[in-house]
């Protein structure tokens, strides 16, 4: 099966290094989430892989070859970059048929992908009447037209309703399960956590992480315990004796940063303090991502006081 390989890739626009000496691989059989703050270089990287832009230096290949060198490229790589790109005056079926014909793909694929994308009932409607979510579905249908081994989707959940979000998640899982190479950019961390096996994270054009999802979350978050007690003052006292701080209460529960449930439980039990609820907090992808990218966000709203402190 086919991999995407990005090797020492750099793209400079004027004074902006949109992509900066980037090296990573996207492997088959798993969904790779492509993350990074606004302007980190995700779309530029995807455009370079698709040969839509020329690298300043370095290479981006699919199955070891530049996209431009692929014969019948849609049979190898399907991509959704900009869902607005389709001609508004065409029907969904007309648009896909034109793509199929110009790329020497069998016309029967058109109805197959319309069905797959849930667009069969509107296949004869003009695209200009489509909502953003329907355009996303059409863009994904187009990406699947050539039955490609590599699928790249830029923000595919954009504009999709909850049912559409579940559909895209299941579609990506299935494509990876079939052994395809799936690269998906997203700003929605909770969403990405439901479908990605692996993560590639960019910040200001550079590689920040290329790791399995689980390792990423474990490596960029710290343990935290949630506890409910009838005697918070006593618990605060015994915990502070062990170097832990009982945080502020929220909904009748307290948090202890940097601790494990078994440690807090043992400390409370030794002091005879009643504990009504005790659990390790599951670190989320969002927490881990924010911890990693805190210094890499180009367009963060920063309070003036924080600025002066830096
Ligand atoms: N055609 C272009 N001309 C000039 N600058 C560009 C061009 N395309 C991208 N850039 C710049 O390159 C940087 C990376 O942009 P890119 O769109 O690749 O980031 P991104 O990670 O996809 O961001 P987002 O999450 O906002 O989509 C940004 O600073 C952007 O302004």
Automatic annotation (TrEMBL):
Q: Where is the ABC transporter domain?
A: 4-229
Q: Which UniProt keywords apply?
A: ATP-binding, Nucleotide-binding, Transport
A GO molecular function term, named singly, is: ATP binding
A single Pfam family it belongs to is ABC_tran
Q: Does the keyword Cytoplasm apply?
A: no
- Entry-linked InterPro entries: AAA+_ATPase (IPR003593), ABC_transporter-like_ATP-bd (IPR003439), ABC_transporter-like_CS (IPR017871), P-loop_NTPase (IPR027417)
Highest taxon, organism lineage? Bacteria
Q: Which family does it belong to?
A: Belongs to the ABC transporter superfamily.
Its recorded name reads ATP-binding cassette domain-containing protein
Organism listed in the record: Streptomyces kanamyceticus
What lineage is this protein's organism placed in?
A: Bacteria, Bacillati, Actinomycetota, Actinomycetes, Kitasatosporales
